[in-house]
């Protein structure tokens, strides 16, 4: 907790140093207990350190929590998150938030890494060329969402850019595996809000890669102190909807069988 105390003592506002433990002692007592004790240790909602910090860093970029990002990143590095993982999270964020919102986080990450004696640039992680990025991106989309995505890029130039740029340029990089990349995408979307259709789609993509419902709820739980209750509850709703939709796709006859077992009565929706 030592570096937290230093940080919250040196929060600046208008060039003036502020000690939040003096100005807001009651708030800080409850905030720190909830964020650093209660949430990480909640039974059934825990994550390993690397996964937890990847999720939180992605969520902080998504909700534009720069000051907290500057606090969490050193703690993440101390806990063993690699500099390559840190940079890959920032790079991938550009596709989901745009460079206008992500550039400050790239600069902040570089500054913190250099302050710790880490030489930049890091080892390259690119695996595609400008010539094959579309082909490779289409394959990644299919690997995550299913074979029907092999034709999605033909729907228009934005869809083509999505395949080549988002998936071909970034998802194909090493440094994070495909399941980790889908997890941080889920966090970008959940944290910024207003992206529920995409959030539901990527909840499904996560599940397709083995990041099941319980795992995603744990991710949301660990991000909650940083993104708040409304966006966390919206994310859980999207997870539940994705589960229901996925069941209908994977088990299309189950509902029909349930009706037959019940003597032909209409199924109850949403149960």
Question: What does this 3D model show about the protein?
Answer:
- The structure is a single chain.
- This protein is an all-alpha fold and 271 residues long.
- The chain has 14 helices and two strands; from the N terminus they run αββααααααααααααα.
- The chain has a two-stranded antiparallel ribbon with strand order 1-2.
- The chain is globular.
- Mean pLDDT is 90; it is low at 263-271.
Tags for this model:
271 residues, mainly alpha, two-stranded antiparallel ribbon, 69% helix, globular, disordered C terminus
Calculate Rg over CA atoms. Answer: 21 Å
Coarse shape = globular
Q: Cα distance, first to last residue?
A: 44 Å
Average pLDDT for all residues: 90
Following the backbone from N to C, one meets helices and strands in this order, namely: HEEHHHHHHHHHHHHH
Which range does the strand content fall in?
under 5%
Helix content: 55-70%
């Amino acid at each position: 907790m030592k570096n937290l105390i230093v940080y919250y003592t040196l929060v600046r506002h208008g060039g003036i140093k502020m000690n939040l433990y003096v100005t807001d002692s009651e708030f800080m007592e409850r905030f720190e207990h909830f964020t650093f004790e209660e949430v990480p240790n909640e039974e059934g909602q825990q994550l390993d350190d690397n996964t937890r910090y990847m999720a939180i860093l992605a969520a902080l970029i998504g909700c534009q929590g720069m000051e907290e990002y500057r606090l969490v990143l050193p703690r993440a590095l101390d806990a063993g998150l690699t500099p390559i993982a840190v940079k890959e999270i920032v790079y991938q964020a550009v596709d989901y938030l745009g460079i206008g919102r992500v550039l400050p986080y790239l600069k902040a990450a570089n500054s913190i890494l250099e302050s710790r004696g880490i030489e930049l640039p890091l080892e390259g992680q690119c695996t595609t060329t400008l010539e094959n990025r579309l082909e490779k991106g289409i394959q990644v989309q299919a690997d995550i969402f299913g074979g029907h995505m092999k034709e999605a890029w033909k729907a228009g130039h934005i869809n083509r850019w999505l395949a080549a740029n988002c998936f071909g340029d970034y998802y194909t990089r090493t440094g994070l595996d495909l399941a980790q990349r889908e997890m941080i995408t889920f966090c970008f979307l959940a944290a910024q809000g207003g992206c529920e259709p995409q959030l539901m789609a990527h909840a499904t993509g996560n599940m397709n890669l083995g990041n099941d419902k319980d795992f995603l709820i744990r991710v949301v739980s660990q991000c909650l102190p940083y993104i708040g209750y409304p966006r966390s509850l919206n994310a859980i709703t999207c997870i539940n909807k994705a589960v229901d939709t996925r069941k209908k796709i994977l088990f299309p006859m189950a509902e029909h069988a349930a009706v037959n077992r019940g003597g032909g009565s209409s199924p109850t929706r949403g149960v």
